[in-house]
Specification:
By secondary structure, the protein is of the alpha+beta class. The chain contains four helices and six strands.
């Protein structure tokens, strides 16, 4: 089974998501999307698979969102896609693609919904937050 993660190694949520995937026994294809952004067609495919609009996938924090005025509703979906392609940091992450679905893994444990073996055993995020307890129960 092939799993792909659109990853930013500087992002804690993305690192936690990658760790969860690996703890499930899978070694994903890791695409550092800031170095290798998805094409427009691929970004549209990902959005459709997640049933999201481009605006819903926009990342605000740590991006040029405010200076570009992207909060203004005047921007069309096509224009927002143009901004994302010009500034990949505007694409929220991590996005995980598996044969079971596509998910924006925010929070990171959302990735469990698309893993073939979500029974990963105990797991705590980098900050110590437990997301799967010692009995294998997902903490909500």
């Amino acid at each position: 089974m092939t799993i792909t993660i659109y990853h930013n190694p500087a992002c804690g949520t993305s690192r936690n998501t990658l760790a969860i995937i690996r703890q499930s026994g899978e070694e994903p294809e890791v695409i550092e999307y800031l170095k290798t952004p998805p094409s427009r067609d691929r970004l549209i495919e990902l959005l459709e698979a997640m049933a999201m609009t481009p605006r819903q996938l926009l990342r605000e924090k740590g991006t040029p969102y405010a200076e570009l005025g992207l909060g203004d509703p005047k921007w069309s979906d096509d224009e927002i896609l143009d901004f994302m392609l010009a500034h990949p940091i505007l694409i929220n992450r991590p996005i995980v693609v598996s044969p079971l679905g596509v998910v924006l893994a925010r929070p990171s444990e959302a990735v469990l919904d698309v893993l073939p073996d979500p029974d990963i055993g105990p797991f705590a995020k980098e900050d110590g937050e437990v997301v799967v307890d010692a009995s294998g129960k997902r903490i909500v």
